[in-house]
């Protein structure tokens, strides 16, 4: 599609186009042409519903007008599909080529020299399809990954409004820019969409931006198409690398196309064969008569110096001097208007624009001929001319001030930095830095800090505050302390702390970590109504031995909410972490401690997956690697991986300057020796070194952690009296300061120590304190972990309980349930569905072995780690028969199973054992069911009920292998699972009743009685429900049915059931 514009009055609108290879041509020699434009017009045809971009606040609807505010105008210009002018030379072969490539390939590159017609060709191709289009034109400032993501989402949201806000939500969740790009791609769903990114060469030297683009491409659905337009091939790290490509030779004019374009230019005297031969079909060369310039050479794949000579001679040389000066003097502007030219010191802008409208130059026009955009290659030439004049810096400063006035503060900073106008840049950066920080474009912020240096300390202090936030956000606490010290030396620290609660809080945060508590307190104002100051005071409270005089701060919606929630996590107030901060920065900084909370509440697999994502994304947090990750890996029993995380984290901590994290990492190392190595002496030596440090006594919460594990080490070494004293100190300090994260563990260890010291009352009270703390946390996971070290603590409390439904008896059942293996992260290759109608699924496809005995073989292997001896299988599945018939049947069952699965999967007979391949993991419904019940047992209250109901739903489709004629083993397994289900449903029924969920409790009780009509607990729940609903007659009726049921086996209701009957009848 080669563009043409109407001739005539210079105010005539030529059609707002952004097509680099399109030639706007007019009838008549030397008439002006709307040529080769890089326009990003406000009037261009909108795509999509015209919705407002949800997070940016920039209206980009179909009725957008030139009166848009500057920020809206610049965004709209970037994300609007260019339009074709009313008259143009069509090139349908290019439309067909691009349409065919996008039909076959997910990613298509359109790569050629500037002026080759790339954008015009893509626009024409898009007009031939009904697939919606999202368009984004890049600029050099879009290389910041957060900025690129924001604009990419805005482009897509025009066509798919529902994705608006996906990036903001993703960044607020603390994930990386690359992962956020993937989530944006996944948000597109399966509906077709073509995403065009033009001028991709603007980011070829920005690896973070390329990673964002690759992340989007990698996760885009099969129905999505991505078209990348630029001068050079883009190497994206995606599996299915660019398979479709449009090159220079594809875009070159054919003789017929050149003839038609020249005819419409009125140049019928020109031989199109010669024009194409001389220019190699380069579109710009043909349309702007480059074929007539001496020594002009444009070869496939790049511009040559003669192009500049041509532009100087054939374009600039034919203009009057005032017009040449105007073009060069305004070259720094992407869009030239009389008003903007005036700001750059160019008078008579309207006159000059009117004159240029009558010239034949590679520009495009919009706003009724009052705004001009130069073609990219022409503008590059003009900028080179400006450089040769030597006044580029002055022009860039003027541009920066213009952009500031228009509200484009971020773009203005870049221009002012380029002009070395550092004071102006600082003032502008103060306005832009908060947006940059919220977008998590830390590299942009760091570059500004480095360039502005001492200038950042002047003004409002916004830049210094932002640099402090970068420091604490990346756990560079020594850097934060150095910034605060520099301000102190300049006499500015107290002034800034008094003016900005955020600055004061981040300085205090840094000082806290490097061991300078007195200075941390000194920079905080007494005014605790400032939410940032209150957050910092909450942090400093971790060092105190007693209770805080202030309540926990409320979330303010600002970035320092991250600090509040991190302290919630350290204190063990895990329920408070359910809130989500409004600030993206806050959520990003909080991410490691959310992972820690998941581990603490028993969601170990999820915590590990999130840690791996952060690890693979290059997370810089030493606390994540050396503390949070090591604890997760200890829980998973992965010793070597834990040691590697500890090593990596220590290196980061050393650079961070955090004395706190260093001490905590040593404590976690001691925990590793105790839990995985059973080396109490090694743990003792590490903890004694930590306890000897000068900073140790000043940070009481660290002391509590150390005392807890030191107490365990001493118990393991038999030093019970010393262990008790240490654990008494730890639990008392935790209780007084309301720090309960480690209290369940410390109190369990204290209960064991007190028992060994013959103090039974203290042992009981300590155990109950552990249970109370766990219930406050909302999870019994940490309590159960500690009781695994000393199960006798639970046993003694259970023995003292008469109530069969007491909390300690629940804990005892949970501990027994932990005997079931619960793999944390296992690859699922073969899925065995055992409840109801049995099925085998491999890689998503259901397969049919044909023999029911094959299902039994697979079920047995799944329940026994994937392997069993032949004799075991004969004993379990063939009633112990070893005759040739039984052996042959077993071989046949295994063979049929191997055929249905895959020879690579197995099972195979190796040294008398039938086993699946080492790489195979079987997801057995029955094994997963028991694991889910064990996981549910770690929780309490509503969360435990929810988890139990989810597990029971899995087993609700029917009995275990119900259509299989069972062997003795299958029948025993079936009865066992019935018993497990009855136990779980009975416990859940009691819990549902206690929570007031009478309908749920009733259904669960009925399910228990369907399995086992002799379960009195279910009859008691039924009686209690009837009483709660006011149906006293039903209470007695239910009791009588219970009595009749038990009478069938010669039994009668227990004393507990009779007592309940009597109590409910009163």
From TrEMBL:
Region described as Disordered: 1-65
Classification via SMART domains: BTAD
A GO biological-process term: regulation of DNA-templated transcription
Protein keywords: Transcription, Transcription regulation
GO molecular-function terms, A-Z: DNA binding
InterPro entries associated with the record: AfsR-DnrI-RedD_regulator, BTAD, P-loop_NTPase, Sig_transdc_resp-reg_C-effctor, TPR-like_helical_dom_sf, WH-like_DNA-bd_sf, WHD_MalT
Highest rank taxon of the organism: Bacteria
Start and end residues of each Bacterial transcriptional activator domain: 926-1065
Gene3D superfamilies: P-loop containing nucleotide triphosphate hydrolases, Tetratricopeptide repeat domain, Winged helix-like DNA-binding domain superfamily/Winged helix DNA-binding domain
PANTHER family: TRANSCRIPTIONAL REGULATOR REDD, TRANSCRIPTIONAL REGULATOR REDD-RELATED
Protein name: Transcriptional activator domain protein
Lineage of the species this protein comes from: Bacteria, Bacillati, Actinomycetota, Thermoleophilia, Solirubrobacterales
